[in-house]
Amino acid sequence: MDVDELGKGPALGLGMEPQGSVMEKEPARRSHKQRGFTRYGGPKLRGLRHVLELGSPDYPPQLAQIPRPPKNLYVIGSLEALQPGLAVVGARKATPYGLGCAHRFAALAARKGIPIVSGGARGCDAQAHRAALEEGAPTVAFLGGGCDELYPPEHYALFQQIVDGGGAVVSEQEWDFPALPWTFRERNRLIAGLARATLIVEAGLPSGTFSTADEAAQASREVLAVPGSIWSAASRGTNFLISEGAQAVFDDQSFERTLLTLYGALADPGGSDQGPMPEEDPLTAALLAAPCHRDQLISVAQGMGLSLRQAHSQVALRLAELESSGRIARYPDGRYGPAGR
Prior knowledge:
The chain is elongated. The strands form two sheets. It has a nine-stranded mixed β-sheet with strand order 1-2-6-5-4-3-7-8-9, sandwiched between helices. Strands 10-11 form a two-stranded antiparallel ribbon. α6 crosses α7. It is of the alpha/beta class and 341 residues long. It has twelve helices and eleven strands.
């Protein structure tokens, strides 16, 4: 099991108890070894290093205001990136829909001049960081362990790109402090704290992502969530958050309105890259509503009055068109559904 897999927290409003633990470095290393976790053995990140003390001029004021602000922040990269941004988080084992939504909405916010904040994890977090980098915008990654104990280790190149792109990699732990389950729960309050709002793009039940939503609520930050199909286990968490009061983000236009309300004047890159959708035919509507097997789509096509042979041909054509345009993706279980981009 991965070290961050053990760091799952409860849902919004269900009351995550603050960890509040302070562990010395050597006991933490012993705990890390006893649990069977592998220490990071790769290269260190290149870039300017800073240690920001609580109360110092460069310490981000928005983090100073959260419950239990860190006494020190260890930063590699630009201090100018530590601005009130948008946190974009979601499942590590994400579906194409979740990955697409993370990329889509992070890119849209980045184009509007809003820094993207996340946790550098596999799945949705990494997609959010990459979207910001592709837009030439700064992004901030908060780590569970120290900045010299990179996790996940395969994201070294991503973390270096973040630093090189004018962003920052940050931890409240000392440089070589090992990543432990509780440090991931603790770092979630920093993700939520630096951001003015937290967007949950995909989460099941239970989900470690919920601790970030909890921390955002406790810090009086806005919680946004992307709804998903009621049939999708991967969207049960975000749908639950919406039922508990999180603001739903259901398209580019609603998201832009929310950003304008939260952040005020925004950069104008020329508008959204996608206008209103044209009226969908039944096959496209079915695919964008929920994941479908090919046989289900053939039944839909036959309901349009097509013969079985015509239905096979029409489904194949439509799948090819929608996949090539990036609107749908083929899931690992063989179904087709929304790609989220």
